[in-house]
Amino acid sequence: MKQTELLIGGKEQAAVSGDYFDVLAPATEQRLGRAARAGKVDVELAVAAAQQGFAEWSSLAPAKREACLLKAAELVEQQGQERLLDLLIDESGSTISKARNEIRYTVDLLRTAAGEARRLYGQTFPNDHPGRLSMVLREPLGVVAVVSPYNAPLALLCKMVAFPLAAGNAVVIKPSEETPMIAIAFGKILLEAGLPPEAISILTGFGAECGAPLIDHEQVHCIALTGSTLTGQKVGASAAKRMVRTQLELGGKSAVLVLRDVDPVKAAAIVAQGIFTHSGQICMANSRAVVEDAVFDAFVAALKQHTTQLVLGDLRDEASCYGPLIHRQALHKVQQHVAAAIDAGASLLTGGQVQQGLVYQPTVLLHTPSDCSAWREELFGPVLSVVRARDLADGIAKVNDSDYALSSAVLTKNIHWAMQAARQIKAGSVHIGMHAFQSNALAPIGGSKLSGVGRSGGAYSTAEFTELKWISMELEESL
Ligand code: NAD
Hints:
The chain is built from 14 helices and 25 strands. The protein is an alpha/beta fold. It folds into 2 domains: 2-250 and 451-470, Aldehyde Dehydrogenase, Chain A, domain 1 (3-Layer(aba) Sandwich); 254-432, Aldehyde Dehydrogenase, Chain A, domain 2 (3-Layer(aba) Sandwich). The radius of gyration is 23 Å and the shape is globular. The model has no long low-confidence stretch (mean pLDDT 97).
């Protein structure tokens, strides 16, 4: 049986309580191993180590921080083919192709962050008083608490760790309780790459037991959470009391707008990929499709045919489209929302059943009423709601009929329609000619409304994880 310990100041150690918790494999629902269960005392130890780590790491030359992150990228690339791939498959229920993509993206994030280490640009600006110089310096924040989710446990953790490190911060990580082992494996890679041991700690355990005391710790200077809106609301409220910087990447209910000029077969394949990848457990998944009347019937027919041909099952089968949901509660949540939608008047085009274990069939609901939970709430499962739009304006209004604003997509060949939609859709990103689940290490990823606050990626992350300081100086002797 696999067992992982906490990683505090570079040392693997048991929790002070000596407690562990079970880690289950979603594909079998069997015990994969156990992980140390951190509590408040462990938080104290990790934050104390991080304060020391911050002093050392932030004083290193940018070239050294860059070299460390580049080395980590190389190690992830090497270890990606074996250990990391297996962990992503076994611990998070990823298919082999999703796991490979996640490893590639992680490497890309590390290399992009490495470049950012040299780009902590400041500024000078004119001053109305002659003989005075004004300048702006960009400085790291200190100790950053990183709280991460289970759905892309390597890449999303890396994204919130690599950029703050590049800027000179130290990090204390609270990974998802569903995926502690992959987090520890990643932490060890960073240490092997030369990160000072105190600059990174990882506390495996539960939100209430070690996540909450971590974000409330007075020596934590920034909180980077990727997780559900509910958790984001709690973390944001708590951070506001201490006036601590937060970056909150939360839930989504993204929509794809399908316009009248598309090939319905190609459009259906794109929309299906945007929702069914990783069983819909993607924050940017396009769980809503708004389809113009003229192409609605042909699109729905193509979608049904495409969806019923998707291969589900063995995660190590290259043809597998997706696998299990993360746990039983996630499955029950999806089942309840689908049942409620059908009760409210939606019709089931396809799916709606458990395939095996925690694998839920790719499910398409037609005409989901806009006041029902399957339209309004994040299901985080393989469920797509398809509704009609009279025209472009009606389509945009339906896309915008959401409390979330993370990602979106527009399928059309007409550049004027595409740009009108792109300008009028309220979302953190709009993707034209592709689905809503896109990633790019340089892009400002994030949302507004219930989808969160802040942007991550490239220089946007550098801005989030640094503080500006204005320094002004008399150039002539004034004393
Ligand atoms: P979750 O909110 O249940 O948990 C996320 C993390 O927060 C976990 O590590 C958890 O232990 C911790 N946590 C929970 N309560 C806490 C508390 N009170 N204080 C501190 N930490 C606490 O989310 P999840 O189920 O692991 O992940 C799925 C969610 O994440 C979905 O809503 C998805 O949309 C979202 N997500 C968003 C993005 C994005 O970029 N916007 C990316 C991936 C996932």
